[in-house]
Design goal:
By secondary structure, the protein is an alpha+beta fold. The protein folds into four domains: about 5-110, PX Domain, CATH 3.30.1520; about 115-225, Roll (Ubiquitin-like (UB roll)); about 230-285, no CATH class; about 290-390, Pleckstrin-homology domain (PH domain)/Phosphotyrosine-binding domain (PTB) (PH-domain like, Roll). It has twelve helices and 16 strands. Strands 9, 10, 11, 12, 13, 14, 15 and 16 form an eight-stranded antiparallel sheet that branches. Strands 5-4-8-6-7 form a five-stranded mixed sheet, sandwiched between helices. Helix 10 (about 260-275) packs antiparallel against helix 11. Residues about 155-170 and about 395-420 have low confidence and may be disordered.
Length: about 425
C-alpha cells in the first residue's frame, strides 16, 4: 500500500506550544493530517487489541527535535503507517477504522451527517445512496452491490437502515464485493475518461472526492481483478454480469481492446442482441480485453521526453514508446520479467503531473530502468500488485518507495530490492 508523508508543517497550538502536523498521502492523494500525539494515542488503542502484531511506534523525544531527528521521525511514521495499513487483519478492525475515519473527517473539517452519495456505473448510470459522510468504501460497496443484485438504483432510506442490520446474513453482495471495488474516475467535458485511483476499503470515498474538489471527479464501481478469465466465476450472478458488461462496452467504445475488423463487426451484432453472457464470452477472444489503459505519458526511455502509451492486464504490462525519429517500439513485459517498480510523489500541492513511476525490466538480458512521469503512477503500481497477487506463486518485486520533499528536479537512482516470496 502506497503511504507517504511528503509534507510536514511546523505549527503553534493555542497554548503556544510548537508541534508538527504530518500530511499523510494514500495512493498519491491526501488521506489525512495528524499530530504525533494523536497518532500515538491511536497506536495505543490498536496495540491494546493486537499487541505484538503492531510494529514499533516511533519514540517520543523529550527535548526539542533537531532537523535530523524530525526527518527520522517522519520516515519512521511513514513506515509505521504503511505496515499497519497493509495488515488486513488490523486494517479491517473497528478500532483501526474508527481512528483513520476520525483523522479523515477532522482533516476535511466535516461532521458525520446524512448525504446523498452518487456512485456511477461505467455506462453513466448513477446509484443514489442515502449514506453518511463518514461511511467507508467497504461499507458503501456492500450496500451498492446488495441493491444492484435486486436492480435497485435509488434505494429507499428505510431499506438502507434495514440493510444495516441484515447485510452480514446475506451472501448476495459478498459475492460481488470480492470482485469489484470503488474507484475515483474523471470524465472531462470532451468525453475523455480516466481512472485516477482505487479507493481502499477503509478509506472514506465521500471525503476523498471532497478533498479533490473538482466536479469532473466521481466515485465509480468497477471490477477489481486483472485476469480476464475470472469473468467465468461471475456468470451465474446477474448483477455481476451487468457490471462486467457495462464496463466491457465502455472500454470497447474507448478502444481499450484490440479487436480485428471482423471481431468488431461480430461484437457490434452481439451488442444489439443484449445477450450479455454471450458478449462477455466472445470478448475473451479479443486481444487486450480487460486491460486497463493508462494516459499517454512522458518517459526517459532511450531519450528524454519519449512518449509512452501503456496497457496493463492479464499478467503483463504493454508499453509502446514513440521515439524521436517517429519510430515506435513496443514491449510486452510479462510480470515475471519485471525486475521491480517504484512510485514517487512530487510536489503534491501543485496541479500538474505529481507522480513519477520507475520501471525495471530485463531487455536482452540487461537490467533496464525507465522513469515515467505520469499522474497515474500509484494506480499503475496498484494494478501490477493486483496482477502479482493473482499469480499461483507470487514474485513480489516491488521496490520500497522513495520519499521526496517536493523539491527534487531530477529523478533519483534507486537500488534493486528483491523481496521475492518463496
Amino acid at each position: 500500500m502506497h503511504i507517504c508523508i511528503p509534507v510536514t508543517e511546523n505549527l503553534v497550538d493555542n497554548l503556544g506550544g510548537c508541534y508538527v502536523l504530518y500530511s499523510v498521502y494514500l495512493e498519491g492523494f491526501i488521506f489525512f493530517k495528524a499530530r504525533y500525539r494523536d497518532l500515538h494515542s491511536w497506536d495505543e488503542q490498536i496495540r491494546g487489541i493486537f499487541r505484538n502484531r503492531i510494529p514499533t511506534f516511533p519514540p517520543k523525544f523529550y527535548l526539542a527535535m533537531t532537523k535530523n531527528m524530525a526527518e527520522e521521525r517522519r520516515i519512521l511514521l511513514k513506515q509505521y503507517l504503511r505496515d499497519v495499513c497493509s495488515d488486513p487483519t488490523v486494517s479491517s478492525s473497528e478500532v483501526f477504522i474508527a481512528g483513520v475515519s476520525k483523522f479523515q473527517m477532522e482533516t476535511a473539517g466535516m461532521p458525520s451527517r446524512d448525504v446523498n452519495l452518487k456512485v456511477y456505473l461505467p455506462d453513466g448510470r448513477i446509484i443514489e445512496l442515502q449514506s453518511k459522510t463518514s461511511d467507508t468504501a467497504e461499507r458503501v460497496l456492500e450496500v451498492i452491490t446488495f441493491f444492484l443484485s435486486f436492480k435497485v438504483l435509488t434505494p429507499h432510506p428505510e431499506c438502507v437502515l434495514l440493510l444495516q442490520t441484515s447485510l452480514n446474513k446475506m451472501n448476495v453482495s459478498r459475492e460481488l464485493v470480492e470482485y469489484f471495488s470503488l474507484f475515483i474516475t474523471r470524465r472531462d467535458t470532451n468525453g475523455t475518461f480516466l481512472v485516477v485511483k482505487r479507493v481502499v476499503p477503509f478509506e472514506i470515498p465521500f471525503v476523498t472526492v471532497w478533498n479533490i474538489n473538482n466536479e469532473l471527479y466521481q466515485i465509480e464501481i468497477r471490477k477489481w481483478y486483472m485476469t480476464p478469465s475470472n469473468d467465468a466465476m461471475l456468470m451465474g450472478c446477474p448483477a455481476a454480469v451487468d457490471l462486467l458488461y457495462t464496463q466491457a462496452v465502455q472500454e470497447f467504445g474507448m478502444n481499450w481492446s484490440r479487436p480485428t475488423e471482423e471481431q468488431k463487426t461480430t461484437l457490434r451484432k452481439l451488442i444489439r442482441t443484449s445477450h450479455h453472457v454471450k458478449i462477455l464470452e466472445y470478448l475473451q477472444t479479443i486481444e487486450h480485453y480487460g486491460y486497463q489503459r493508462m494516459d499517454p505519458s512522458v518517459s526517459d526511455y532511450l531519450n528524454a521526453n519519449t512518449m509512452v502509451s501503456m496497457f496493463v492486464g492479464n499478467n503483463e504490462l504493454c508499453c509502446t514508446f514513440k521515439l524521436p525519429d517517429n519510430r515506435t517500439e513496443t514491449m510486452n513485459l510479462h510480470i515475471s520479467k519485471i525486475a521491480g517498480w517504484d512510485a514517487l510523489l512530487h510536489q503534491p500541492d501543485k496541479d500538474c503531473d505529481q507522480q513519477e513511476f520507475k520501471l525495471g525490466f530485463m531487455k536482452e538480458n540487461v537490467l533496464t530502468w525507465v522513469t515515467i512521469w505520469t499522474n497515474q503512477g500509484f494506480l499503475l503500481s496498484t494494478w501490477l500488485k493486483k496482477i502479482s497477487s493473482e499469480q499461483p506463486v507470487t514474485p513480489a518485486k516491488e521496490n520500497l518507495e522513495i520519499e521526496d520533499n517536493g523539491t527534487s528536479e531530477k529523478p533519483r537512482k534507486i537500488k534493486i530490492v528483491d523481496v521475492t516470496t518463496k
